[in-house]
Structure formats: structure tokens, C-alpha cells
Write a structure and sequence with these properties.
By secondary structure, the chain is α/β, with parallel strands linked by helices. It has eight helices and ten strands. The chain has helices at 40-47, 69-73, 91-101, 106-119, 135-147, 165-182, 216-223, 228-236; strands at 2-11, 14-24, 28-33, 55-60, 63-64, 76-79, 153-157, 185-190, 201-206, 209-214. Residues 2-232 form the ABC transporter domain.
């Protein structure tokens, strides 16, 4: 689903991504675990076409971001760390606007919006402005928006920042459903070790380099630690 080869991104003399290479198969919940400043957000900005990397290439579903970005991006849904909803529009208007940007026919967008909103418990609030919503419900709206065009790869960048434990759990459960029901590949970037403990696969990123790659148990063994948290802290201190 995703193949990254020799990806390098610099900010002046600082190297944010250092010849990063990895591949992710279709389906599964993959956690990109790294401390603040590890390069997670920079990687997501390259994956979504906001930055063109200095070196290397990214392929999504076999399509190069350098030579075929439009078709590659059509396979991607994204929830960025910073919220990006129009606060003065209702939930319904935010979602409909995005569906129109994606070129979805009106009957398709109505069905998908209703289905996803019901699944995430948003139907009763569809006419409320986003400004009135809790942080957890705003995140749910962003997730619904990202799923409307049925992406194969869903990118989640520190998506639980500021959420209470219940909202965080509901968001994670919803993504696990996407993996099981539709075979979506989720790449979840976080610095919270607890969010990686039940992942299918964990990628540990530190200073732009990949330190470990495998199941939580394999990563714990590779980095050395009694727990995944201890191993992560030991490797990235």
C-alpha cells in the first residue's frame, strides 16, 4: 500500500528525515511511534503532497508521488494534528463541502455522510456548528470527512491530542472497524506508547531514522526493555 525509499527532508542544516525507507502492506493498523521532533509530521506532510522531499520517493498503491501525485493522493485520507474544519459551518455543511471537493455524486455523498455520521454517533448534531462541538466530536467529524471518498490508506497525525480517554478510545475503535470491515491501511502517528500496544505493527522513528519495525513484542525485544514503553524510552532518550 505504501512504499518509501530513501526519503530525505532537510530544514536548512537540520535533517528531519534521514534516507528513510519502509514499506507497508495493504490492511492493518500501523503505529508510527516517535517522540516530539522525530519527523512524524514531516513524513505526513510529504505523504500528503504538502512538501516535496529533497531526496527519495513515495509510492502509494504503486503510484509515485513525484510523477503521479494526483492519482496517488486519491487513495489517501488524512486527519492532521491541527484541526482543519470550518468552525462556523455545521457538521453537515463541512462534510458536504468536502464531498463536493472529492467529486462525489450527490446521492453517493448523502448516503455516505448519513452512514458514517450514524456510525460515529453524530446524527443528532448534524445541524450544529462545529464551533459548538467538543474536541472529541470535532475529531469524529474529521475522521468521517477523511473516509467519505473511501481511501485505501488513512493517515492520522497525533489525532488524539487534547482528547479525553473515552473520546480517544472511541476514535481508535472506529479505526479498528475500518481495518476489519474494509481492509483500510491505517498509519497512526503518535508519541503515546499506549496507543501502539495493540497495533498490528509498530514503526519507531527517532531523529528521522527508523529504529525498529515489527509487532509490539518484536519491537520491545529489538530495542530491549521489560515493556514497550521502557524499550521506547530507552531507545529515544
Amino acid at each position: 500500500m505504501l512504499k518509501i525509499h530513501g526519503l530525505t527532508q532537510r530544514y536548512g542544516t537540520r535533517i528531519a528525515l534521514d534516507a528513510l525507507s519502509l514499506s507497508i502492506a495493504r490492511g492493518g493498523f500501523v503505529v508510527l511511534l516517535g517522540p516530539n521532533g522525530a519527523g512524524k509530521s514531516t513524513l505526513f506532510q510529504v505523504l500528503t503532497g504538502l512538501f516535496a522531499a529533497d531526496e527519495g520517493d513515495v509510492k502509494v498503491a504503486g503510484l509515485s508521488m513525484r510523477t503521479d501525485a494526483r492519482r496517488a493522493l486519491a487513495h489517501i485520507g488524512v486527519v492532521f494534528q491541527q484541526q482543519s474544519l470550518d468552525l462556523d459551518l455545521s457538521i453537515a455543511r463541512n462534510l458536504q463541502f468536502h464531498a463536493e471537493l472529492q467529486g462525489l455524486p450527490s446521492h453517493v455523498s448523502r448516503e455516505r455522510i448519513a452512514f458514517e455520521a450514524a456510525r460515529f454517533g453524530l446524527m443528532a448534531d448534524m445541524q450544529r456548528s462545529v464551533r459548538e462541538l467538543s474536541g472529541g466530536n470535532r475529531r469524529k467529524v474529521e475522521l468521517v470527512r477523511a473516509l467519505l471518498h473511501r481511501p485505501d490508506l488513512l493517515l492520522m497525525d497525533e489525532a488524539t491530542v487534547g482528547l479525553d480517554p473515552r473520546s480517544r478510545r472511541e476514535l481508535l475503535d472506529g479505526l479498528q472497524d475500518e481495518v476489519r470491515q474494509r481492509g483500510v491501511t491505517v498509519l497512526w502517528a503518535t508519541h503515546r506508547v499506549s496507543e501502539a500496544e495493540h497495533a498490528d505493527r509498530v514503526l519507531v522513528l527517532h531523529r528521522g531514522r527508523l529504529l525498529a519495525n515489527g509487532s509490539p513484542a518484536e519491537v520491545k525485544a529489538a530495542l530491549g526493555g521489560a515493556t514497550l514503553e521502557a524499550a521506547f524510552l530507552n531507545a529515544t532518550r
